[in-house]
């Protein structure tokens, strides 16, 4: 049995695809989503046209950690701030030999789980695509990318079911480059949250794209010094800032696909601010600041973004124009 622990957008989608193709799955999450999923079941769609349903009678969605007791495989899908708590709750209930995968953004969530789960195997995973909850149990996978995971012999019994679910596990010996490549893309989450506009509006404006480029260039220079090579996602990571900085008309031609997104989609950091939740800023841009510190350097652009998002969490501005934010980041630089 597979347990999805912290079933929200990612957990319901990944677990839902597995359940829709015959895997035995239990979801553990909050009462609000439990009510939604128990009322409607799950409806899973993707950008390629996949359309699957799990009827409400067949979804097991629990709110008690004890539901993870029988799982052979546990997929942890809480936001980074919830990782330690999830590990603490799982420690007394996991059965011997259960394998745990952290399917979270950031760099160190698997380590945080390992500290809470001594003697267990916890693997680093990464979800390369985006998922939005459209309400009434509907979860949409709206972008390219798959599931990456640290290779381990314990994955063998599960490879076929993930492949059958349309989400094959791409196994990596070293996940560091994969995690950093995703983190580079996620540096935009802060900018989108501070802009307070949908991603499509934000990415259509050169000044916002220049902000993303500043944050990415700062991180890429530090990664070079640290001898860390981020893996290629859609493009080689070093080309992305150059592409982001071109004028709007050129960007529309060169990167039309990047703008082919749901006109209402926003970053999950914007959603967190709206909902009054702590954001993942410290696990994303905060990691660039920590990498700089470890090298005896500074990361003023990402440091300023961390500060602005922390201010926004406390009620500060979430309506920056591209020009205002660019000026702010350039002066920090
Ligand atoms: N959404 C995406 O498109 C996407 C894409 C790639 C990667 N990711 C990453 O994947 C991770 C999950 O993101 P998400 O968007 O799926 O987050 P999410 O929608 O907030 O889902 C996490 C759910 O877990 C619940 N939760 C937290 N602690 C729990 C606990 N101890 N027991 C039971 N439930 C708990 C949360 O409730 P509370 O809100 O009450 O804490 C929330 O409902 C993050 O690291 C994110 O950065 C997300």
Strand and helix map with partners:
Layout: E1 2-5, H1 9-20, E2 25-28, H2 31-40, E3 42-46, E4 51-54, E5 60-62, E6 73-76, H3 83-90, E7 99-103, H4 109-116, E8 121-127, E9 131-135, E10 138-141, E11 147-150, H5 159-164, E12 169-172, H6 176-195, H7 199-203, H8 206-225, H9 240-244, H10 248-254, H11 256-259, H12 268-274, H13 285-294, H14 300-313, H15 322-332
Parallel strand pairs: 1-2, 1-6, 2-5, 3-10, 6-7, 7-8, 11-12
Antiparallel strand pairs: 3-4, 8-11, 9-10
Helix pairs in contact: 3-4, 6-8, 6-12, 6-14, 8-13, 8-15, 13-14, 14-15
This protein binds NADP nicotinamide-adenine-dinucleotide phosphate (NAP).
Give a written overview of the molecule.
- With 333 residues, the protein is an alpha/beta fold.
- The chain is 44% helix and 16% strand.
- It has an 8-stranded mixed sheet, sandwiched between helices. Strands 4-3-10-9 form a 4-stranded mixed sheet.
- The longest helix has 20 residues.
- It starts with a strand and ends with a helix.
- It binds NADP nicotinamide-adenine-dinucleotide phosphate (NAP).
Sum up the structure in keywords.
single chain, about 325 residues, alpha/beta, 8-stranded mixed β-sheet, 4-stranded mixed β-sheet, 15 helices, 12 strands
Order of helices and strands: EHEHEEEEHEHEEEEHEHHHHHHHHHH
Q: Residue share in helices?
A: 40-55%
Amino- and carboxy-terminal Cα gap: 50 Å
The percent range for strand residues is 15-25%
Class by SSE composition? alpha/beta
**CA-atom Rg in angstroms:** 20 Å
The description of the largest β-sheet is:
8 strands, mixed
Order of strands, main sheet, comes to: 5-2-1-6-7-8-11-12
Instruction: Note the quaternary state here.
Output: single chain
Unique ligands: NADP nicotinamide-adenine-dinucleotide phosphate
* Average pLDDT rating: 95
């Amino acid at each position: 049995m597979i347990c999805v622990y912290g079933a929200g957008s990612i957990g319901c989608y990944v677990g839902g695809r597995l359940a829709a193709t015959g895997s035995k799955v239990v979801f553990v999450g909050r009462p609000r989503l439990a009510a939604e999923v128990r009322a409607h079941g799950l409806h899973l769609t993707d950008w390629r046209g996949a359309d699957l349903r799990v009827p409400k009678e067949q979804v097991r969605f629990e709110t008690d950690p004890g539901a993870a007791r029988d799982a052979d495989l546990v997929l942890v899908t809480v936001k980074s701030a919830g990782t330690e708590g999830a590990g603490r709750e799982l420690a007394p209930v996991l059965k011997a030999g259960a394998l745990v995968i952290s399917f979270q953004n950031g760099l160190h969530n698997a380590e945080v789980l390992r500290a809470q789960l001594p003697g267990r195997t916890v693997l680093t995973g990464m979800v390369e695509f985006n998922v939005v909850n459209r309400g009434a149990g509907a979860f949409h996978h709206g972008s390219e990318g798959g599931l990456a995971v640290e290779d381990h012999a314990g994955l063998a019994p599960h490879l076929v079911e993930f492949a059958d679910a349309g989400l094959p596990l791409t196994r990596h010996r070293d996940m560091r480059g994969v995690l950093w490549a995703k983190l580079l893309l996620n540096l935009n989450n802060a900018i989108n949250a501070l802009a307070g506009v949908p991603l499509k509006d934000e990415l259509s404006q050169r000044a916002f794209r220049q902000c993303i480029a500043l944050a990415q260039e700062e991180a890429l220079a530090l990664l070079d010094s640290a001898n860390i090579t981020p893996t290629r996602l859609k493009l080689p990571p070093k080309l992305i800032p150059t592409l982001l900085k071109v004028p709007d008309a050129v960007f529309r031609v060169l990167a039309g696909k990047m703008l082919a997104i749901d006109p209402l989609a926003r970053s999950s950091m914007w959603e967190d601010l709206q909902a009054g939740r702590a954001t993942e800023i410290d696990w994303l841009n905060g990691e660039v600041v920590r990498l700089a510190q470890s090298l005896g350097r500074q990361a003023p652009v990402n440091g300023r973004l961390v500060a602005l998002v922390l201010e926004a969490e406390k009620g500060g501005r979430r309506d920056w124009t591209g020009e205002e934010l660019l000026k702010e980041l350039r002066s920090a630089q």
